[in-house]
Amino acid sequence: MLVHHWDTDGITSAAIYIKLHGEDNLFTPKIGNFYLDSEDFDVVKKADKVVILDMNLPDAVKLCKYADVYIYDHHRASKVECAKEHYNPYLMGMMYPSCTTVLMERFSYKPDYLVALGIIGDKGPGAKKIEEWKIVEKVMSSENLREGELQLAVELLDSSFKLNNRNEVVENVHLVLQGIKEVLENDKLHTNLEHISKEIEMWSDRAEDMGNYMFLEMRSPYMIISAVTRRIAWGRKKPAIVVNHKDDRDEFYIRFPNNEHSALPLIELAKKRGYNAGGKDEVMGAILPQGKSKEFVKEVLEVLRW
After folding, report:
1. pLDDT at 195
2. Cross-referenced InterPro entries, in alphabetical order (predicted)?
3. Domains delineated in the chain
């Protein structure tokens, strides 16, 4: 069973793994959960082999009791000793831009549109500033692709998780395996994107300039807090803090567009509070109990001395 993240990097990583190994029993956790809840865990533990892609799942150790576990990831993580293989450059002190580049290195996979989509999906406009942009340029040249087409394909693939359509996320793995043209010409994904774009634009325009950072409180049923935070941070070239109030939880997101600070201490802060949190050096997301966001934002600002 391939357990993969629901975004473009997770989708294309699953596609690469299928091309390499032919396994296509796909599963993505409930969207928004960077862990397996009891229902998801009961499904995954039935597999004899579990391959975790583009996720630092805290449940990996427990899964070792039921299955052979393999992990390929690029997020901040601790070594899962019981895994048959845990291949994550972070464990060797290196940060890779995407899980697709991790798989490319581990399995000597020739760079293609799947690798490029993973890089652009996770790094956005910042992809041009990293060494791996050479990979994207090479792919665009060899496969006759334009940068705009790659970016649009990312937005189309991501539209499914933003609308909480878990089944469609899995379907997108098979879609992207057919080729990037099939993604770009998919009418359903274009309809998704039109709806999501309006929602993201509406909320992004409401962000307040607090001096050192941008701040937004929103209330949306969709999984767009990451996209809203990214749009605010990259658009205003300032750190952005966004809180989304849902019916059963508060969501917290922070992004540093210029590496002004590291999000890693904030991830630790959230975990010490017992919250589910994750991210990388420049970005952090956390799921908070309902009504706890105001207190947590205050703590974050104290850590950052804002």
Report:
1. 94
2. DDH_dom, DHH_sf
3. 2-188 (3.90.1640.30), 205-304 (3.10.310.40)
Kindly list the strands in the beta sheet with 250-255, ordered across the sheet, starting from the edge strand earlier in the chain. 208-209, 214-218, 240-245, 250-255, 283-288, 276-280
Residue type at 263 in one-letter notation: A
Q: What is the pLDDT of residue 219?
A: 97
Q: What is the pLDDT of residue 137?
A: 96
32 band by pLDDT with thresholds 50, 70 and 90: confident
pLDDT at 125: 81
